Amino acid sequence: MTISPSSPPQQQETKKHKHSSRRHKNKHTHVTINEKTPLVPKKQRAHSSEFNGASMSGAIMNLSTTIIGAGIMALPATMKVLGLGLGIIVIVLVGVLSEATVRILLKYSKQGGSDSYAGLMDDAFGDFGKKVLESCVVINNLGVLVIYMIILGDVVAGSSANGVHHPGLLEGWFGPHWWTGRVFVLLVTTIGVFVPLASLKRMDSLSVTSSLAVALAVVFLLILAGISIFKIINGSLPMPRLLPDITDINSVWNLFTAVPVLVTAYICHFNVHSIGNELENPALIEPIVQISLVLCTLVYIMTSFFGFVLFGDSTMGDILSNFDSDLGVPFSIELNDIVRVSYALHLMLVFPLVFYALRLNADGLFFGSSQIPLESDNKRFASISAGLLLVIYLGANFIPSAWDAFQFTGATAAVCIGFIFPASIAIRDVHGIATRRDKMLAVLMIGLAVFANVIAIYSDAYALFKKKPSPTA
C-alpha cells in the first residue's frame, strides 16, 4: 500500500510500525532453527533426489494428524455434557471458527512475507508477541503430549476413577504386577519409544507415518460405529440425550467445561506454516487446510455420535477407558484389545510431529540468542529433548486424567494459539488489509473465547472446591 504525503497520521503510524517490526525481525534472523523452519529444510531438498517438495495428499495427512491427535478420545465426553444435538452443533461451529483463524494467519503471512506463526506475531507485536506465542506453543504442546502419555497409561496400565478400576492391556493379559503398573509402563514407553522418536532431527517420511496414524484412528472409528450399529439393531441401546441435562445455574456453567476440549481438538496452527513451507506448490496450503478440517470434523462428529450412543452417561473423559469390559457383542474382548492397541499406536505416530514443534519453540524461547543451529548442537538438542520428556513423564503420572489436562491446556494456551492471537493480528492490522467484517469477526472470537474459558475455569474450580466429581468421570 502506497502512503502519500497527505495520508492520515494513523496510516503513517501503521507504516512505521510495519517497518519497525520487520527491522526487529531481521535482527533475529541469525537465530537457529525455530518453528518457521520446514520439517525438511530447503537445503536438504535441493540435494535430495527423493524429496523435491511435499505432495498435497501428504500435507493433508500431516495436518489431519496434527488436528486429530488425542482430541478425538475426549469428544464423546463433551456429548455427555452438552447432549448429542447441541454437541454436534458446537463441534461444527468450532471447526468453522478454526478455519477462519487459519485463514487470517495465511492472509497476513502472505502480505508480510512471514513464513512462521512466530514471525507473524513478531511482525504484528514485535519480539514480545513472538515470545508469548512461543510460550503458548510450549505450554500447549507439553499439555497435549502429557495427554498422550495419560491415555497410553490408561490403555496399557489401566486407570482408576471414583473408586472404579479400569484394567489396562497388560493387567488384562498378565494380571496385576509391579511391572504392569502405570509408573513402570510409562517409564519403559518413554525410554523405549519416545526417546528414539524425540531424537529425530529430520522427518522425511512424515507423510507416511501420518497416513498410518490417520488410518489407525479410522480403524477405531469403524469398530466403534460397528458395535453401536449392531447394538442399535438388536435394541439394546437407549435413546441418547439430545440436549444437556440442566437442573440449576451450576449445571449451566458446567456446559462451558466442554469448550476447552473442543478448542484443543482443533489446534493445528503451530504446524500450518511448517507444512506449507514444505509444499511443492505452497499456494495449495489453503485448500489443504480446508480439506483437513472438513475431514477431521466428520471424524469428530461420527466418533462423538457413536461413542455417546454406545456408552451414554457412562462415557469416560477418555473413551478408551470404556473399552475394558464386555461390550455385549461377539468377540468383545478381542475388539477391546484392537481398539486400545490401534489407538495407542496412533498416538505414538503422532508424538514426533507434536514434539518436534515443542522442541523448536522451547529452543527459540530459552536459547533464542544462540547462533548455533539446534540440529548442529548435539548437547543442546539432547538436553532440551531430555528435559521435555522428563516433564511429560512426570505430568502423565501426577495429572489425574486426560480431561483435566484438556481443561488446563484448552482454557489457557490452546485458546490463545487458536483464536485470540489470530484475532488480535486482524485487529492490529499492521498492513491495513483487514475488512470491517474481519475485525468484527475477530472481536467476536476474542469475546467468545475469553467468556467461555473464564466460565469453564470457574466451573472447574467450583467443582474442585465443592469436591464434586468431574462431569466426565
Automatic annotation (TrEMBL):
<dbReference type="GO" id="GO:0015179">
    <property type="term" value="F:L-amino acid transmembrane transporter activity"/>
</dbReference>
<feature type="transmembrane region" description="Helical">
    <location>
        <begin position="51"/>
        <end position="75"/>
    </location>
</feature>
<feature type="transmembrane region" description="Helical">
    <location>
        <begin position="138"/>
        <end position="159"/>
    </location>
</feature>
<feature type="transmembrane region" description="Helical">
    <location>
        <begin position="381"/>
        <end position="399"/>
    </location>
</feature>
<feature type="transmembrane region" description="Helical">
    <location>
        <begin position="284"/>
        <end position="311"/>
    </location>
</feature>
<feature type="domain" description="Amino acid transporter transmembrane">
    <location>
        <begin position="54"/>
        <end position="454"/>
    </location>
</feature>
<dbReference type="GO" id="GO:0031090">
    <property type="term" value="C:organelle membrane"/>
</dbReference>
<feature type="compositionally biased region" description="Polar residues">
    <location>
        <begin position="1"/>
        <end position="12"/>
    </location>
</feature>
<feature type="transmembrane region" description="Helical">
    <location>
        <begin position="212"/>
        <end position="233"/>
    </location>
</feature>
<keyword id="KW-0812">Transmembrane</keyword>
<keyword id="KW-0813">Transport</keyword>
<protein>
    <submittedName>
        <fullName>Amino acid transporter, transmembrane</fullName>
    </submittedName>
</protein>
<feature type="transmembrane region" description="Helical">
    <location>
        <begin position="253"/>
        <end position="272"/>
    </location>
</feature>
<keyword id="KW-0472">Membrane</keyword>
<feature type="transmembrane region" description="Helical">
    <location>
        <begin position="179"/>
        <end position="200"/>
    </location>
</feature>
<dbReference type="Pfam" id="PF01490">
    <property type="entry name" value="Aa_trans"/>
</dbReference>
<feature type="transmembrane region" description="Helical">
    <location>
        <begin position="81"/>
        <end position="106"/>
    </location>
</feature>
<feature type="transmembrane region" description="Helical">
    <location>
        <begin position="405"/>
        <end position="428"/>
    </location>
</feature>
<keyword id="KW-1133">Transmembrane helix</keyword>
<feature type="transmembrane region" description="Helical">
    <location>
        <begin position="341"/>
        <end position="360"/>
    </location>
</feature>
<feature type="compositionally biased region" description="Basic residues">
    <location>
        <begin position="15"/>
        <end position="30"/>
    </location>
</feature>
<keyword id="KW-0029">Amino-acid transport</keyword>
<feature type="region of interest" description="Disordered">
    <location>
        <begin position="1"/>
        <end position="44"/>
    </location>
</feature>
<dbReference type="InterPro" id="IPR013057">
    <property type="entry name" value="AA_transpt_TM"/>
</dbReference>
<feature type="transmembrane region" description="Helical">
    <location>
        <begin position="440"/>
        <end position="459"/>
    </location>
</feature>
